[in-house]
Write a sequence for this structure.
């Protein structure tokens, strides 16, 4: 960085941007790295190249991809910024040009905003391509080995201006279900639904009308439905032009859930009391209805429409099960599954859209707790309601867990995550046995440098990457 880092908690400690790109051929490993782990664990998150133009919104910091290649019990590491159009222009200028906190405030020399955004939120592997995703922009293809940026991927021109950071691979067909929120860039509440077949050929967009422009970050699929939760977070350019929030928490708008038949037809619509949902754990069909498991938050961390700050004490997220019955239109039956604060729900993705037993979460910290970071991982057992927890301790931040299969049974595998040790100022990859989370890591590959806590991760097995 050429400028001092602003005094911002999202640019310090476990979020402080890494200023270098590394190639580390052989990391120190504590414990025993399992022989069966053969592939690459990827992680992406915001990592501004230059001190951002204040105020900084970490959701819009430049994406950096980290990759831990694991084979024969050994681990190598590499990290690279995603060289988006925005990153390249700022690199050439030697300073930040683009505002991160909204559509206004770019440097007069910035020029039009490139269409490939910041590629900082999530990653997906489909049809032999590794894509870095940010929901307001085009996906950016990355070389899975070198992490070189290959450029925006527009599915042969079939994708419009953006796609979700949380597409879903249908385990039965290998198809990728995805959507775009605000696909025409207008704040009208439109959603576009797409499906890319196993070869990566994208269907034409199906337009779905939501109740209002909102942040729809994730969705769920079942064999027959795509399910969207539209929360009372509203977007308004007029409001922003009047000096009030672009994005606001307006609980009086309630929640609308749309179950869109994947084969075509009108969405089924359901309503429920206000809450915010960022991430879905899974969904499946049962007795003609839809079961939707998600992390819900009483209050979204956005100001009210008149600019009052949110009540951070109500921002804790908890795991809940919602039931939608097409024979009872309009009604959402809601049940909290556990009182533990949690975020970043993941599953054994061979069960995506299907009845399943285990969910994996980050917890012991995060929004609503007074601690910016999660400090542990857990496994939730839907069959028993039991939670197994690994507590990494008060000075270690822990990322979202990523499940890696070992045997054919659901849940037989490992959980991979990365950590940041606030005492040593270094990062690590940790590997847990997914069937014994409480035992903590069976192996830890240590970096000599900091790795900022990012958003989402991905595993690509060596067998899968060889097939591309
Ligand atoms: Fe996300």
């Amino acid at each position: 960085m050429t400028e001092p880092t602003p005094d911002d908690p999202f640019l310090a400690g476990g979020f402080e941007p890494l200023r270098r790109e590394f190639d580390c051929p052989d990391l120190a490993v504590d414990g025993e790295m399992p022989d069966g782990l053969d592939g690459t664990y990827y992680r992406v998150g915001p990592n501004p190249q230059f001190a951002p133009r204040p105020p900084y919104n970490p959701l819009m910091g430049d994406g950096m991809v980290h990759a831990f290649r694991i084979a024969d019990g050994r681990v190598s590491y590499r990290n690279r910024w995603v060289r988006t159009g925005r990153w390249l222009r700022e690199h050439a200028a030697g300073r930040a040009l683009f505002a991160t906190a909204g559509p206004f405030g770019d440097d007069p020399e910035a020029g039009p905003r490139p269409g490939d955004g910041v590629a900082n939120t999530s990653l997906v592997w489909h049809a032999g391509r590794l894509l870095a995703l940010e929901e307001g922009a085009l996906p950016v293809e990355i070389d899975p080995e070198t992490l070189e940026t290959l450029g925006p991927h527009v599915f042969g021109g079939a994708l419009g201006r953006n796609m979700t950071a949380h597409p879903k691979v249908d385990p039965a067909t290998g198809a990728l279900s995805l959507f775009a929120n605000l696909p025409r860039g207008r704040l009208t509440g439109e959603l576009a639904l797409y499906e890319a077949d196993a070869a990566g050929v994208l269907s034409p967009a199906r337009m779905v009308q939501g109740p209002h422009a909102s942040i729809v970050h994730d969705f769920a699929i079942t064999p027959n439905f795509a399910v969207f939760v539209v929360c009372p977070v509203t977007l308004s350019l007029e409001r922003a032009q009047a000096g009030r929030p672009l994005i606001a928490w307006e609980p009086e708008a309630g929640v609308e859930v749309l179950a869109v038949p994947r084969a075509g037809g009108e969405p089924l619509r359901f309503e429920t009391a206000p809450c915010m949902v960022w991430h879905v754990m899974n969904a499946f069909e049962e007795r003609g209805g839809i079961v939707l498991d998600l992390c819900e938050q009483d209050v979204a961390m956005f100001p009210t429409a008149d600019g009052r700050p949110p009540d951070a004490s109500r921002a804790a997220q908890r795991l809940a099960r919602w039931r939608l019955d097409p024979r009872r239109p309009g009604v959402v039956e809601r049940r909290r599954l556990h009182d533990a604060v949690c975020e970043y729900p993941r599953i054994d993705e061979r069960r995506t859209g299907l009845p399943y037993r285990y969910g994996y979460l980050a917890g012991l910290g995060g929004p609503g707790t007074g601690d910016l970071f999660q400090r542990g991982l857990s496994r939730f057992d839907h069959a028993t309601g039991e939670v197994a927890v690994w507590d990494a301790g008060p000075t270690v931040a822990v990322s979202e867990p990523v499940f890696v299969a070992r045997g054919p049974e659901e849940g037989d595998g490992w959980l991979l995550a990365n950590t940041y040790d606030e005492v040593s100022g270094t990062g690590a990859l940790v590997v847990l046995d997914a069937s014994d989370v409480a035992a903590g890591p069976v192996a830890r590959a240590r970096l000599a440098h900091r790795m900022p806590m990012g958003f989402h991760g991905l595993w690509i097995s060596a067998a899968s990457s060889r097939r591309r």
